[in-house]
């Protein structure tokens, strides 16, 4: 099966510095929906003698004129997606005028209309949809931007500082902006719209006052205080933890409804998906609050890690994204619960990243080959990238890591650099050799560690034999440098000091070869070993700990993360056991006892207890099998949940009723809601009058976290209350599309034979819109990721639904189509019937006449 066209891949090894520099660009936008005129005046310098052609990128542009040093210029050629200008002098002023049509741009890349507002998205290669340019991150220019628009667009915004604004004829007005910091084109931004504004200020550590402004659609002001508070916390945290102060005098955030990702770090003018900004207690969940804080932080932290120091080329994306995710994770952990943040991050790794790394799109955190860059904003580049930074942090320690960061900025401020440059700064500043460690940047796949434990009673010696296996699909991977953290517990649950032959041993072991043994002595009984404490490396560990040992770890490990990790392992083993020998499938009573203990004692962080009560997700369990046993996994997890619900009914009820949620956003109240929500999740499985009353009253409360907990509990339990409660929610919230996304997601979770027909019917709901990525993901994304039983129906109707959607999205928004395709990528891991059905959908896409590069790359890889 071959597609009709074959887009070209780009290779890291082919990198060449740009032959021309663009030092300065002066842009003027005359904004109109169908013919916006863009005038670009560039200062061009030839860098490499003898190069005759300046090759500029440009897509979907109408060229009006080219002028060189004020003279009309005709020595050029237009190619597909390129403008080639011949025989330019060593230095010149190049003026290009072109037109674009923001109104018909549904790709949400370049300049487009979101609702009634003009906005831009330029990362990675969207600037070329605005004007002809050297659209690559190693071309750094200063930008002056003039925006002209109808006066109804009250706010005209771009990067940096506003120089002047004023009225023009014909009901139009203008504003002129200047960004003093040189930047690559992907950080350019422009917004024109009519907004409400929340203003505030932040005083930096050196005493400068920064103006802060948050622009939202009219009427949304009451939903802005949380994002503003998050921004101020981010600014303060970056000063305290990383000694990094904001540089411009103004920081703006604009929230738009049509956006492909979460948010974008454009210099001084972040553009956000409105769902990552807007929140109040009635409309947003505690999880939404947390996400908003973390994304506001992420984009703010990019100002130094991404903007002041940027990427030489897009293969280096993890230079800014891995590092900035690490920074936002640390921000969330310093401000909230470190253990829960770690649990969240590791879940992302074990579910999404491990499966990407084992599938046809597997790539190193620094990819070597790319067809469509938008396909590489992945969990590998972002989240595994952050794990790689975290491992360096573990190896160096906070102090030396910060010295490395300081050296990185000292060497590279204002430059476009590589991942090698980052590691060199870390290594040079700390004196720690990271040569072998750097393999993490070039090797794909998840390393597998086989750990064997041995205890010699006579000598009191305990040994860990660690074998490092290359991932199955990457057989020539060389051994990695793996920081392997451990804890040894004695029978009383006390932590044993690590020592060997009179010397203390650090709890982070350096695993560097294919096979290695680590010895510890002075042990009078066999210890219980906590392995890969805090997930100190992104690896899979195969180990021999028994259920008794795992229960011991769950009770006593010093790391709350590792306690949760042991719980996950217990459930995974139980599920695997039940599938291997499906006799009576009873959950080990010791596990039930442990869960009862947690519920009754309610000791420590209640949000952690909620996590400890949660079964591993379908994706986590699926990762344990070569061929995913879909039906058995669904059946066994249902049985286990029902057993837990039945055996702990009174404990869940007692816990729910004893905890009082004061409705605030304090950590305590958030934790209480999390635990109560988990109680409801189990209780909804039991159909009884008193429990139904509880569910209905919670669904009618005024806190979105509680409302959703009740609704999601009834939907997932197939409780007969679901239909009526969902209808009620629809009539209550139709005016608020972000809230309706939660409703679409709940609809997508429903079971039953009409599940798929129901989703198709919702395509006609007044709030649904195929052009809005939030709506599409809420409805179809939730369905394909979380409604396992229906998406993976044996008759293929679930796959057909997604296939139909992808055909449609391919033409509207290829970037969103490509992200929605992900569940199809692991088609080879399903049984015969299912894999054939998914493959047919992939083949159908491959034959599309207008197949986008985005889909081509993934479909082609999947079918290889
Ligand atoms: N740089 C953004 C971030 O991670 C990611 C991003 C936002 C993006 N919008 C995009 C990437 C569009 C590709 C395309 O913070
Ligand atoms: Zn980012």
Automatic annotation (TrEMBL):
It comes from the Bacteria. Residues 445-543 form the Peptidase M1 alanyl aminopeptidase Ig-like fold domain. Residues 227-440 form the Peptidase M1 membrane alanine aminopeptidase domain. GO terms for molecular function: alanyl aminopeptidase activity; metallopeptidase activity; zinc ion binding. Belongs to the peptidase M1 family. Residues 548-864 form the Peptidase M1 alanyl aminopeptidase C-terminal domain. InterPro entries: Aminopeptidase_N-like_N, Aminopeptidase_N-like_N_sf, PepN_Ig-like_sf, Peptidase_M1, Peptidase_M1_dom, Peptidase_M1_pepN, Peptidase_M1_pepN_C, Peptidase_M1_pepN_C_sf. Keywords: Aminopeptidase, Hydrolase, Metal-binding, Metalloprotease, Protease, Zinc. Its cofactor is Zn(2+). Aminopeptidase N is involved in the degradation of intracellular peptides generated by protein breakdown during normal growth as well as in response to nutrient starvation. GO terms for biological process: proteolysis. Its EC number is 3.4.11.2. Residues 24-187 form the Aminopeptidase N-like N-terminal domain. It catalyses: Release of an N-terminal amino acid, Xaa-|-Yaa- from a peptide, amide or arylamide. Xaa is preferably Ala, but may be most amino acids including Pro (slow action). When a terminal hydrophobic residue is followed by a prolyl residue, the two may be released as an intact Xaa-Pro dipeptide. SUPFAM superfamilies: Leukotriene A4 hydrolase N-terminal domain, Metalloproteases ('zincins'), catalytic domain. The gene is pepN. This is Aminopeptidase N.
């Amino acid at each position: 099966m071959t597609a009709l066209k074959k887009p070209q891949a780009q290779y890291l090894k082919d990198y060449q510095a740009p032959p021309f520099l663009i030092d300065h660009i002066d842009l003027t936008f005359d904004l109109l929906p169908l013919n916006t005129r863009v005038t670009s005046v560039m200062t061009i310098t030839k860098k490499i003698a003898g190069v005759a052609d300046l090759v500029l990128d440009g897509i979907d542009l109408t060229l009006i004129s080219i002028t060189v040093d004020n003279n009309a210029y005709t020595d050029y050629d237009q190619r597909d997606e390129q403008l080639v200008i011949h025989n330019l002098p060593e230095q010149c002023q190049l003026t290009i005028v072109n037109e674009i049509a923001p109104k018909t741009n549904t790709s949400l890349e370049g300049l487009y209309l979101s609702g009634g507002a003009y906005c831009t998205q330029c990362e990675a290669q969207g600037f070329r949809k605005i004007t002809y340019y050297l659209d690559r991150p190693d071309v750094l220019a200063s930008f002056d931007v003039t925006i002209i628009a109808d006066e109804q667009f009250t706010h005209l915004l771009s990067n940096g500082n506003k120089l002047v604004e004023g009225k023009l004829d014909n009901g139009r007005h203008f504003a002129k902006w200047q960004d003093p910091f040189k930047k690559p084109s992907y950080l350019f931004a422009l917004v024109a719209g009519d907004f409400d504004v929340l203003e505030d200020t932040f005083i930096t550590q050196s005493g400068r006052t920064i103006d802060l402004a948050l622009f939202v659609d009219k009427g949304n002001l009451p939903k802005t205080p949380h994002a503003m508070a998050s921004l101020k916390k981010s600014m303060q945290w970056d000063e305290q933890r990383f000694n990094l102060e904001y540089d411009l005098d103004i920081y703006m955030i604009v929230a738009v409804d049509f956006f492909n990702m979460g948010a974008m770090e454009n210099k001084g003018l972040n553009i956000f998906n409105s769902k990552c900004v807007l929140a109040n207690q009635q409309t947003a969940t505690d999880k939404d609050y947390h996400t908003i804080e973390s994304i506001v932080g992420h984009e703010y932290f990019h100002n130094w890690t991404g903007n002041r120091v940027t990427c030489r080329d897009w293969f280096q994306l993890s230079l800014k994204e891995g590092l900035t995710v690490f920074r936002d994770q640390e921000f969330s952990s310093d401000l909230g619960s470190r253990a829960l943040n770690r649990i969240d991050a590791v879940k992302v790794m074990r579910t999404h990243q491990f499966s990407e790394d084992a599938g046809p799109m597997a790539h190193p955190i620094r990819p070597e080959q790319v067809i469509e860059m938008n396909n590489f904003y992945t969990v590998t580049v972002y989240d595994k990238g952050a794990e790689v930074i975290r491992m360096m942090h573990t190896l160096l320690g906070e102090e030396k890591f910060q010295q490395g960061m300081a050296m990185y900025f000292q060497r590279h401020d204002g430059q476009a650099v590589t991942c090698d440059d980052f590691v060199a700064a870390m290594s040079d500043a700390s004196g720690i050799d990271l040569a072998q460690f750097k393999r993490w940047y070039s090797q794909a796949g998840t390393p597998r560690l086989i750990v064997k434990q041995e205890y010699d009673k006579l000598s009191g010696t305990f040994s860990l034999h660690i074998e490092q296996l290359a991932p199955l699909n990457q057989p020539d991977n060389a051994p990695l440098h793996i920081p392997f953290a451990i804890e040894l517990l004695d029978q009383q649950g006390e932590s044993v000091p690590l020592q060997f032959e009179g010397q203390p041993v650090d709890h982070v072991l350096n695993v560097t070869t294919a096979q290695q043994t680590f010895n510890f002595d002075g042990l009078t009984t066999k210890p219980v070993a906590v392995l890969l404490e805090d997930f100190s490396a992104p690896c899979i560990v195969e180990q021999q700990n028994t259920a008794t040992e795992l229960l011991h770890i769950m009770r006593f490990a010093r790391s709350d993360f590792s306690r949760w990790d042991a719980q996950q392992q217990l459930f995974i083993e139980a599920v695997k056991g039940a599938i291997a020998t499906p006799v009576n499938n009873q959950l080990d009573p010791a596990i039930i006892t442990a869960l009862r203990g947690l519920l009754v004692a309610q000791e420590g962080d209640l949000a952690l207890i909620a996590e400890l009560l949660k079964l591993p997700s379908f994706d986590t369990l699926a990762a344990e099998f070569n061929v995913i046993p879909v039906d058995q996994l669904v059946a066994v997890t249902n049985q286990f949940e029902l057993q837990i619900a039945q055996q702990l009914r009174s404990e869940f009820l007692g816990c729910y009723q004893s905890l009082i949620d004061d409705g605030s956003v304090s950590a305590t109240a958030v934790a209480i809601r999390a635990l109560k929500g988990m109680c409801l999740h189990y209780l909804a499985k039991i159909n009884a009058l008193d429990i139904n009353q509880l569910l209905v009253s919670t669904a009618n409360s005024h806190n979105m976290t509680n409302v959703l907990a009740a609704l999601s509990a009834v939907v997932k339990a197939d409780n007969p209350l679901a239909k009526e409660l969902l209808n009620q929610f629809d009539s209550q919230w139709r005016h608020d599309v972000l809230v309706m996304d939660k409703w679409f997601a709940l609809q997508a979770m429903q079971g039953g034979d009409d599940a798929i027909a129901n989703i198709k019917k919702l395509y006609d709901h007044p709030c649904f819109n195929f052009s809005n990525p939030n709506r599409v993901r809420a409805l179809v994304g939730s369905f394909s990721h979380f409604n396992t039983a229906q998406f993976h129906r044996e008759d293929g109707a679930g796959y057909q639904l997604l296939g139909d959607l992808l055909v449609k999205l391919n033409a509207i928004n290829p970037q969103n189509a490509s992200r929605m395709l992900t569940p199809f990528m692991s088609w080879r891991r399903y049984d015969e019937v299912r894999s054939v059905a998914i493959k047919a959908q992939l083949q159908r896409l491959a034959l599309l006449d207008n197949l986008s590069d985005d889909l081509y790359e993934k479909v082609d890889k999947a079918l290889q």
